[in-house]
Amino acid sequence: MKFKGEPLVEKNQRVVKFKKGDKLFEFTISPVSFGFDEFVQDKGIVAPVPPKKPAKVAGKHVRTANNSLVMELDESDPEYLKAERTYGRRMVALKLAEVLRDDTNIQFESQRPESDDSDKKWRKYAEDLADELEATNLTDQEVGHLFSEAFEASFDFDIEKATEDFLSEEETSDHREAS
What predicted TM-score, i.e. pTM, was given to this entire model? Predict the structure, then answer.
């Protein structure tokens, strides 16, 4: 896509600083790329679906008019809950790597697979990133703050300049004369 003949390649970034102990950390944060969630899903990292179980009311199975069991999602199933935690952990790690992708001070030990590598390699990469993130001792609040800043960075633009550039003075005066 181009705007006035120029490619839209500008990046909105923010520098986020915070202290851990005696050290000051600066992170260059970028917004999550458009299509990130689809990209991750295409790599086999998908939210788990809870299993179904027969619905019960007052301890008795619920049946339809034709005597079939009514099924409901079992969101308390231990295997489902474990899969949900694993998925969440992987998504946080992948998203953090995504918002830090342009920070030249950050190097992950986990090796990002090639885009056409197997889903298994991508899941391993996500787990390795999650382990690496856990080892940093970043708190949930610090990670959340980095995500919040990345989200806010997606809105960093000068509305007056954007409005000014949208219609040049010549185009505006031509429009007024035509009215």
Answer: 0.76
Instruction: Note the pLDDT of residue 159.
Output: 52
How many domains, the chain? 1
Contacts 24+ apart (CB under 8 A), 9-17: 11/102, 12/153, 12/154, 12/155, 12/156, 12/157, 13/102, 13/153, 14/149, 14/150, 14/152, 14/153, 14/156, 16/145, 16/146, 16/149
Residues 6+ apart with CB under 8 A from 14: 28, 29, 149, 150, 152, 153, 156
158 backbone φψ class: left, alpha, beta (φ>0; ψ -120 to 50): beta
Cα separation, 166 vs 178, in Å, equals: 18
User: Which residue segment(s) compose the domain that 109 sits in?
Assistant: 2-49+84-178
* Interacting residues of 158 by C-beta distance below 8 A, sequence separation 6+: none
Task: Write the pLDDT tens digit of every residue in 125-161.
Answer: 999 999 999 998 888 999 999 999 999 888 765 555 5
169 found inside a domain: yes
